[in-house]
Amino acid sequence: VSPRNRGPLFFVAAPPEDGKANAALLSFLSDRLGVGVSLAGGSASRDKAVLITGLDADEAIRRLLALEDPA
């Protein structure tokens, strides 16, 4: 996890083929945030938009920022 100007940057080990990397990202976010997460855009791009359900925007941002690597 790494911060950047347009939002957090996440790295996954899954290959970017057959939706494996997208599935890994959504699974990671859902597990860590404890709510539903779906892909809202960028399925074939390195830049993704995700829809986080079950949290208000401020709480979603707080939880995402808590995932950042302090190093």
Top keywords for this entry?
34% helix, 71 residues, two-stranded antiparallel sheet, alpha+beta, 2 helices
**Alpha-carbon Rg, integer:** 12 Å
Structural class comes to: alpha+beta
- Kindly estimate the percentage of residues that lie in beta strands according to DSSP: 15-25%
Could you report the average pLDDT, rounded to the nearest whole number? 86
How many strands? 2
Main pleated sheet: 2 strands, antiparallel
Termini gap: 10 Å
How many helical stretches?
2
Order of helices and strands: HEEH
Shape: globular
- The share of residues in helices is 25-40%
How do the strands of the widest beta sheet line up side by side? 1-2
Low-confidence stretches: none
Question: If you had to describe this structure to a student in words, what would you say it looks like?
Answer:
The protein has 71 residues and is of the alpha+beta class. Helix content is 34%, strand content 15%. The chain contains 2 helices and 2 strands; from the N terminus they run H-E-E-H. It has helices spanning 20-33, 57-66; strands spanning 36-41, 49-53. A two-stranded antiparallel sheet has the order 1-2. It starts with 19 loop residues before the first helix and ends in a 5-residue tail after the last helix.
